[in-house]
Structure formats: C-alpha cells, structure tokens
Design goal:
The complex is a heterodimer of chains A (about 160) and B (about 210).
Chain A: H1 2-15, H2 17-27, H3 31-48, H4 58-76, H5 78-82, H6 86-92, H7 101-115, H8 119-129, H9 134-141, H10 145-163
Chain B: H1 2-13, H2 22-28, H3 31-58, H4 62-69, H5 73-103, H6 107-146, H7 148-159, H8 163-211
Classes of the chains: A mainly alpha (about 160), B mainly alpha (about 210).
Chain lengths: ~160, ~210
Amino acid sequence: MKSTKEIEFVTLVQEHQNLIHKICRLYTNSDAEHKDLFQEITIQLWKAYPKFRGDAKFSTWMYRVGINTAISLYRKSKSRIQSFSFDDVSYKIPQTETYDDTQDQQLKSIYAALNHLNDIDKAVILLYLEDKSYKEISDTIGISEVNARVKMNRIKKKLKTQLNP
Amino acid sequence: MDELELLKKDWQENQKFPKLSKQEIYALLHKKSSSIVKWIFILSLIEFGFWTVLALFMKDTEAQQRFDSYEMDHIMIPFMVIGYLILGYFFVTFYKNYKKISSTDSVKLLMKNILNTRKTVKQYVLFNLVFIYISLVIGVWIEMDKNPDFQLITSKFTETNEYLVMYGIVALLTLLMMVALTGILLGFYYLVYGILLKRLKKNYKVLKEIEG
C-alpha cells in the first residue's frame, strides 16, 4: 500500500535527517533558507524514492539527491544565496561547550570561506567533512576518484588563500 | 591544514540541529495537499467560467428569450445576486483554504485544513444542487403562470376539475428532472472534485496514522 511506503519513507528520513540538515547548513545562509531547502530536499527525496532500489546505502542515496537538489536550487538563486551577511554566518556557528574566542573567530572565518566555494566544491567538502572516502565522494557526486582528489586539493588551497591572504 | 582539521572536528562534534518528528517530516510533504487545494480553487473558478459561458450561449435561444419576455426580473435578479454572493463566498473560502494550507507546518493544522477543505467542497456541491433545485421550481412556477401554452392546459384541467391531477403530473415531471439533474451534476462534480477529495482523504489518513 502506498501509505505504508510513505510511512516507511518518513521513518527513514527521520532517522537520517541530520544528513539533510548538514547539506542545508552548507548551502544556505539563514534559518528561512535552511527550512526551505530542507523541505525541498525532502520532497525531491520522496519523488525519487520509488527509484531507490537499495543498491546503494540509503544515506549515500540521500546525499546524492540532497546535494543535487541543493545545487539546482543554489543555481536558481545564486545571487540571493551569495549575498550572505556576517550575522547569518554567526547564527549558523554552533556554540562549543568550552568557549574559546580565538577558535570561535577562526571557525567563523572558515565557515565564511566555505560560503565562497562553488556548488560542486561545497559538495566535495561536505562529504570530506563527513569522513567519506574519495571513492564514496566520487560515487555520490558522479565524478572520478582522481577528480575528487584533485578537487579536494584545490579546495584546500582556495581555503588557505582566503583564510591567509 | 590546521583550519580544515578544526573545521572537521567542529563539523562532526558540534552539530546541533532541531530534531524533526515523523509528523513534521510528513507535514513537509504536504505540498501535495496544498497543490490539491490550489487545484480545487482553480477548478471552482474554471467551473464558474464554464457555466457563465454556457449561460451566454443560451441567452439567444428561443426558450431563454421567451422566458425573458415574462419580465420576471424582480424575482430573477435578486435570486441571481444571492446566488453570485454565495458563489463569491465559496471562492474566497477556497482561496483562504489554499493560503492556510500552504503556510502551515503544523500537522494538527494541516489535518484540520484538509478536513475544512473537504467540508467546503461538500457544502459547495450541496449549494449548487439546492440552487439548481430552487431555479427549477421557480422556472416551472413562472412557466405555469406566464406561458400561454401552459395556461391553456391549466384551463382544460380546471374545466374538468382535475387540476390536482395536473399539479401531480407537473410535480412528478419536476421531480424526475431534479433526479436527472442530480445525477448529471453529481457525476460532473465527482469527475471535477471527487478525485481531488479522495487524494486529500488519503493524505489525511496517512497523517493520522503517523500521528497515532
């Protein structure tokens, strides 16, 4: 029955929801945008769910659909998303338990630098931060493993340049 | 690179996101319900346009011209105005339902809005049926009173003191027309709104199942 399938889908999404939040965190700059993208990804996942055959892990499939949705939405509203404000960035920085002002400032700068990466680079760094192997990164984004490594090296350089001009 | 390691550590350890419940996640999918309600609103407008165009085409027919010649505007105009006012109320309600359903992210409200929309559509169909019945009764009454052919038949029945038989026949024919119109209209509304209402009902059931 279709309703059983919907419940199964909702249960899976609820279990893996942090994954969607993480994509939203990287691709959006405000609470409203975060919510919008979260909803859009959930809807796209539901639309694509009948095609999910279980060949890949559910989380890998979610990353793929989620990143594709974020990128297509990001492309549609590129100008809006790029005009971030410092306040928006600070809203997204989680509070560390042991408050360290220097580290906090450093993190703010890193997150701000991430914001300047292009959509594909954001996808690469997201999976890198999630401790995915280059093989998994390449499978999820649909690029070769070598290309994933090259991109990651370039991202590191870009970030370094931005953080230490 | 130190910064990247710091970022990775922060990314993996300090992720505090709101935990959405199953109901809330299902509510995110409610765009389905909101688009159904949007279609109900659009269809009601298209339907109104359809009946208006049909009425315009009927304007030049012999039957309509004969009816107009009875000069019953003092009854027909207020009747039509009331009809349009009630239709206007339904359009506004359909639009409000759509606005409410597309802006809510609460499951309880979503369920309430689905029920409200279904109720409004049912009331709308009921109103249209009642309006058609009243139009039919008024139409038959005016025809009996003003149509020379009808008056001729009436006088014949009155002469033989069988006017009760005549009224019985008229009542029976009116009733048959009502039954036929009910069938046609309900069939039409089932095709236009019935399928959408079924989908809304399905969404409602799933919401309830998740909530339970």
